[in-house]
Design a protein that fits this description.
The chain is an alpha/beta fold. It has two domains: about 100 residues, no CATH class; about 190 residues, Stimulator of interferon genes protein (Rossmann fold), CATH 3.40.50.12100. The chain has 16 helices and seven strands. A five-stranded mixed beta sheet has the order 2-5-6-1-7. It is elongated and about 95 Å long. The N and C termini lie far apart (about 70 Å).
Length: about 400
């Protein structure tokens, strides 16, 4: 549980609707103040402000449309219709046009309540024209938070593409075959059943935050030793007949020197993220790389949780870069997750060696020999579930009449 809390503290959550709530509260308070102090002019003032903002946004969209029409209509839109593709792409969508139309109609009907009509219209035209200029200069441009929110909401980040590629091109193909590969591996190797638990039958995928991956796990931690490879899986893929997919089995040593066999590997797409951060032309620094690694982890976890083919066949392990100074940190993280799997997964059926002929002996039916039988007394307690419907309690019967008759 502590491991899960540490991962939750590192992984960024999707952005919520708090900015919308704050904006709605701010507008409500402001409009309430305007209606309180200027009830006659409130409607016209609100309509004028809405018209100014929407018309300024429409003018900015027209500036973008000029560029798209002259230079990109064939290469980017491939002759697609102007109204259905190019206009919405430039911000000239139905919501903006509708808002501007409603605001203009409202302002026309309430124009008599505007103070200093000439000055009001002059101010409206001036703000409307300045809006696209400030927009193209970046003064009113989208912030980094807005760009990040758009990219995450529309799945446009590098991490989203890498996570989907890792799932569709690898995990969805190999995870359904993992159990059969482990069974075949057991048949050809002499393994200690106590060290190969339920958690070891999953593919452990390591996701280091620094994206720096070693091709050999034993180079990172000498408590991890390569043991052998699982049987190869050959799958016809993209024109390649019998493309080989394989997994490696490692022995992880705990503090007591006991070996725990498990199937471990790094998330391969992190090599791409690390290589991108080393290329100056990619414009991908260390902060961006860390953010993309966290988004990769969150996206991949969400994909696998909703995948029926991969369910209960994997375990993602996030390695915090701040703790990598410990030379045995990878092995400790693996052992912690294996122990957690063993504690969280319980077998509901009794062990096969347990005697079930007389699972429960009542006090009235127990003989002296049974009470002193060490085998029966040393059995583990079992939970008995009755399928019979519950019966009502018997009410006490009056027997005074019978005692009276006997006297």
């Amino acid at each position: 549980m502590q491991c899960l809390r540490e991962q939750d503290a590192l992984i960024p959550r999707p952005r919520g609707s708090l900015p919308k709530v704050c904006a709605a509260v701010l507008v409500t308070v402001t409009i309430g103040g305007v209606m309180l102090f200027s009830p006659e002019r409130s409607i016209s003032l609100i309509a004028l402000a809405a018209l100014t903002l929407t018309v300024g946004s429409l003018l900015h969209g027209l500036c973008l449309l000029a560029e798209e029409l002259l230079y990109h209509s064939n290469t980017r839109y491939r002759g697609q219709r102007l109204l259905s593709h190019m206009l919405p792409a430039c911000g000239l969508g139905g919501k903006t046009l509708l808002t501007a139309g409603v605001a203009g109609l409202t302002l026309y009907l309430a124009r008599h309540h505007l103070p200093h009509k000439g000055q009001s219209w002059e101010l409206a035209f001036l703000v409307t024209v300045l809006y696209p200029l400030l927009k193209v200069l970046g003064v009113l441009g989208p912030s980094e938070v807005e760009v990040s929110d758009i990219c995450e909401g529309r799945k446009m980040n590098v991490a989203h593409g890498l996570a989907w590629s890792f799932y569709l091109g690898y995990l969805r193909l190999v995870l359904p075959r993992l159990e059969a590969s482990i069974t075949a591996f057991h048949a050809t190797h002499q393994l200690n059943n106590t060290s190969w638990g339920r958690g070891s039958r999953k593919l452990l995928i390591l996701v280091p935050l620094n994206a720096n991956i070693s091709h050999k796990l034993e180079d990172e931690d000498d408590n991890i030793q390569f043991y052998d490879n699982l049987p190869n899986n050959e799958i016809d893929r993209a024109g390649v007949r019998g493309r080989v997919y394989k997994h490696s089995v490692y022995r992880v040593m705990d503090q007591n020197g006991k070996a725990h066999e498990c199937v471990v590997e790094y998330a391969t797409p992190l090599l791409t993220l690390y290589s991108m951060s080393q290329e100056s032309s990619a414009g991908f620094g260390e902060p961006e790389r860390r953010q993309q690694v966290l988004l990769f982890y969150r996206t991949l976890q969400d994909i696998l949780e909703h995948s029926l083919e991969c369910r209960n066949r994997y375990k993602l392990i996030l390695l915090d870069g701040r703790k990598m100074d410990d030379p045995h940190f990878p092995s400790k993280a693996i052992l912690r997750h294996l122990e957690q799997q063993e504690k969280e997964e319980f077998c509901l059926t009794p062990p096969p060696h347990q005697e079930m002929a007389h699972p429960f002996v009542g006090s009235s039916g127990a003989s002296n020999g049974d009470m002193h039988n060490p085998e029966l007394m040393s059995r583990e307690p079992t939970l008995m579930i009755s399928l019979d419907k519950p019966q009502p309690l018997k009410e006490p019967t009056e027997n005074t009449y019978h005692y009276t008759r006997q006297k």
